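Below sits my pick:
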Amino acid sequence: MTAEMKQASRSERQQQARSVATYERLIQATLDVIHDVGYHAATTQEIAERAQVSRGALLYHFPARADIILAAMERLLDDGTAEIRAVAQRVQKGELSLEGFVGFLWELFSGRFFYLSLEMITEARNDAELRERMIPVVKRFHEALDATWVEFCNPERRTAREARIILNLTVCLVRGMGVQTVLRPDPGYFTDMIEAWKALLPEIVEGRAGDAMFSGPRFRLLEG
């Protein structure tokens, strides 16, 4: 390879690296702006300024506002999935208790991750195009969680379906509580419910409460 070819190759790699770095800054800036000012106020101009890139650079990567919103949503859920899976694995290894896992989920679904997803989900309700583009992204998120939940529980104690039900109940609980935090600044109220669920969850996963839950005639009818 000639010196000119090596120089061209090095220049190309540097350009690609700059392009990737610009893309990453735009994704992070989009999440930051939506979190700080809300979905509607998150203009592409504000995003470009926050990312410290030109509007032309933004349009190169994301021709429409919906494109960057969708990419940011996908990144948010991918990162959330990875974090949940990593913590679930700690439970499997005995490094973290079920109670600790519930505490982790509560922090996740009452903080930045949850409020960002809430902004986007709420907007999708009245934006058919955004909703159609978001559905497969969210579906992948839930499929990944379901796979994690199946591995989470001892298969000798709980079937794959039972494991999904137990952990999705937990997610639905903390997600619903997360919505309440918007208009109910009452930490004690939420602490009481979280502590109650921490006490109950081990009995559902490994104990008689779970046996009773899944042995009833109504559940067997639905299963069949």
Q: What stands out?
A: The chain is about 80% helix and 0% strand. Residues 10 and 155 are 52 Å apart (CA to CA). The radius of gyration is 22 Å. The mean pLDDT is 91.
